[in-house]
Amino acid sequence: MLFVYILVAILGLIAILHVTAKKQYVVKRDINIQKPADKIFEYLKYLKNQDQWSPWNRKDPDMNKSYEGVDGTVGFISKWDGNKEVGSGEQEITGIIPGKRIESQLRFIKPMKSTSDAWLAVSTPNPGITNVAWGFSGKYNFPFTIVSHFMSMDKMVGKDFEAGLKNLKEILEDS
Predict the structure, then answer these.
(1) pTM higher than 0.70 for the full model?
(2) Phi first, then psi: what are they for 131, rounded to 5°?
(3) Res 125: pLDDT
(4) What is the model's pLDDT at position 85?
(5) 130: how many CB neighbours lie within 10 A of its CB?
(6) Which residue, 57, 64, 102, 116, is the most exposed by fewest CB within 10 angstroms?
(7) CA–CA dist 142, 137 (Å, integer)
(8) φ, ψ (nearest 5 deg) of residue 97
(9) What is the 3-class SS of the chain, one letter each residue?
(10) How far is CA 107 from the centre of its chain?
(11) Closest Cα partner for 132 from 27, 28, 32?
């Protein structure tokens, strides 16, 4: 009988953790770059350019990559298969607001299947300065809803976003 009480208590705890957990995550970082917004946007809309500044490309420069479609247009897909740090998946451009925003969907396969929406957006807070915002969002599914009580997607990948934006700034300001 004690076993039944323990099992019910564990299942109850799991249910409470699931119900009270965050259901969505958002990770966003931004940086100011001294370059005109139109030039930055033109560079950003090509997914292949991410190979130059992506923190994950630097974690596995030997990852296998393939592409489908015309880069810089809606429907273009970049696929990757890398080491344990970068996993495997694909990114598809799902929307472009000319001069302002590039939207994409990230479909991770390894280390775990998940889907997130990603974006890169440019704005001009001051003449000669372009703000680049990079982010992604998604939903936690069970059992990750429970894990979200103990981990933060922002803490897990936020520093990678910061490193990527720093790389981007160096590349664009030096060109």
Answers:
(1) yes
(2) -95, 130
(3) 81
(4) 86
(5) 21
(6) 64
(7) 17
(8) -105, 105
(9) CHHHHHHHHHHHHHHHHHHHCCCEEEEEEEEEECCCHHHHHHHHCCHHHHHHHCHHHHHCCCCEEEEECCCCCCCCEEEEECCCCCCEEEEEEEEEECCCEEEEEEEEEECCCEEEEEEEEEEEEECCEEEEEEEEEEECCCCHHHHCCCCCHHHHHHHHHHHHHHHHHHHHHHC
(10) 10
(11) 32
Superfamily of domain 23-174: START domain (3.30.530.20)
72, 45 contact by CB (below 8 A) = yes
Domain ranges of the chain: 23-174
In the prediction, which pLDDT does 146 show?
57
The number of residues making up the chain comes to 175
- Output the six-digit token pair for 25: 């995550």
pLDDT on residue 16:
63
Residue numbers of the chain with a pLDDT score lower than 70 = 5, 7-23, 140-153
CB 145 within 8 A of CB 131: no
Q: Token digits for 115?
A: 């889907």
Contact 157, 56 (CB under 8 A): no
Dihedral sign, Cα of residue 151, residue 156, residue 157, residue 158? positive
Specify the pLDDT at position 143.
63
